[in-house]
Write a structure and sequence with these properties.
By secondary structure, this protein is an alpha/beta fold. It has 13 helices and twelve strands. It has two domains: about 260 residues, 3-Layer(aba) Sandwich (Aspartate Aminotransferase, domain 2); about 130 residues, Aspartate Aminotransferase, domain 1 (Alpha-Beta Complex), CATH 3.90.1150. Strands 1-7-6-5-4-2-3 form a seven-stranded mixed β-sheet, sandwiched between helices. A five-stranded mixed β-sheet has the order 8-9-12-11-10. Strand 2, helix 4 and strand 3 form a beta-alpha-beta unit. It starts with 14 loop residues before the first helix and ends with a helix. Bound molecules: pyridoxal-5'-phosphate.
Length: about 400
């Protein structure tokens, strides 16, 4: 018999072991194997200031949320995780923590539409400028960085919906040389397929609504801050330190967009099966992408796992699989709308990353908010979130919809 692992041991455990155990010791009072839903706002103090486990009020801390935050930090290899009520709440909190009026942000020219809207239309009026740039073009990124003024380089890889792949380590070096933070939105790849902090990123952002939650039943977001990550050069932290973890913790509590206990619990339950789900998402997506590539009604298939994808080599190097998202072009808006109307197994809906397959028309749905901007997407593009159903049924469904 070996000794039971102590909580610290999980750092060296495999991915799924961390996802299932980190931060999730059986409940001390009851032995409950699953972290309970602590549906509570406040905590009895044993005399003034006598907190049990540090809990006083659930905006500041809640045990179910703590379990999720510790598990997220463990699977991303970060110093500390923070769980929010949505991906955009996580992004908003991070940007408030690291930007001041007059600062500048480099954003991907095919960023998630909501991220772009937040940067351009919420932070813009507060004096934050931004430059959209093609992150696959390192010279263009270097040219867009304004030394002394650029405080954040925002990375998405693979991007949404065009699945562009950029080199995280190279972008981290560019950001670091400019004293800016490298932020990676790891929603599409997930920590199972890609580890941005190990590649030099300072902080990882998630919409846990997508693959981490994984069952289309909860909206949530997260930040995971890398070990030792600092605020952008020159910025003083609100608590007297320049550690990014301290600044994010202060802002999470001060702005209060935290994940509720039940949402945290659902997200944690999803996280436990992330590895097995991602394996199936990846293999189903490759089969679907190959089928579409060979289909006469399809002009172009965009999937990083196909060798003709311009980011294939980079993806193969920095990811351990190519993900579950596939986009394709059919030549006209009418044809794209027609395909979206005719599938039965693929459900017409926004969002992605759940066990069920979804189909959508980005120009009219997820990316309608960027119409007319540098981020506009082609109107003959169809995006698939390939689920974990039997792949023969997925292929047959697309076949009849394209016929
Ligand atoms: C959905 C999404 C977001 C926003 O997350 P919400 O949970 O919807 O607020 C951010 N980035 C990417 C890549 C996303 O897909």
């Amino acid at each position: 018999m070996t000794d039971a692992p102590t909580p610290q041991d999980w750092t060296n455990a495999g991915f799924s072991t961390r996802a299932i155990h980190a931060g999730q010791e059986p409940d001390a009072a009851t032995g409950a194997v699953v972290t309970p839903i602590f549906q509570v706002s406040t905590y009895k103090q044993d005399g003034v200031g006598g907190l049990r486990g540090g809990y006083e009020y659930s905006r500041s801390g809640n045990p179910t949320r703590t379990a999720l935050e510790e598990a997220l930090a463990a699977v991303e290899g970060g110093a500390r995780g923070f769980a929010f009520s949505s991906g955009l709440a996580a992004e908003d909190t991070l940007l408030r923590a690291v930007l001041r009026p007059g600062d500048h942000v480099v954003v991907p020219n095919d960023a998630y539409g909501g991220t772009y809207r937040l940067v351009a239309r919420v932070f813009g009026p507060w004096g934050i400028e931004h430059t959209p740039v093609d992150l696959t073009d390192l010279d263009a990124v270097a040219g867009a960085i304004e030394h002394g003024r650029t405080k954040v380089v925002w990375v998405e890889t693979p991007t949404n919906p065009l699945l562009g792949v950029s080199d995280i380590a190279a972008l981290a070096a560019l950001a670091r040389a400019a004293g800016a933070l490298l932020v990676v939105d790891n929603t599409f790849a997930t920590p199972y397929l890609q580890q941005p902090l190990a590649l030099g990123a300072d902080v990882v952002v998630h919409s846990t609504t997508k693959y981490i939650g994984g069952h289309s039943d909860v909206v949530g977001g997260a930040l995971v801050v890398g070990d030792g990550a600092q605020l952008p050069v020159g910025l003083e932290g609100p608590t007297g330190t320049t550690l990014l973890t301290d600044a994010v913790a202060f802002h999470q509590n001060s702005s209060g967009a935290v994940a509720g206990p039940f949402d945290a619990w659902l997200t944690l339950r999803g996280l436990k099966t992330l590895a097995v789900r991602m394996g199936r998402h990846c293999s189903n997506a490759l089969t679907v992408a190959t089928f579409l590539r060979d289909h006469p009604a399809v002009d172009q298939v965009i999937y990083p796992g196909l060798e003709d994808h311009p980011g294939h080599a980079t993806a193969a190097r920095q990811m351990s699989g190519f993900g579950g998202m596939v986009s394709f072009r059919v030549g006209s808006k009418e044809k794209a709308l027609d395909v979206c109307a005719r599938t039965h197994v693929f459900t017409l809906a926004e969002s992605l990353g759940g066990i069920e397959s979804l189909i959508e028309h980005p120009a009219h749905m997820t990316h309608a908010s960027v119409a007319g901007s540098a981020l506009e997407v082609p109107d003959d593009l169809v995006r698939l979130s390939v689920g974990i159903e039997d792949v023969a049924d997925l292929v047959a469904d697309l076949g009849q919809a394209l016929a």
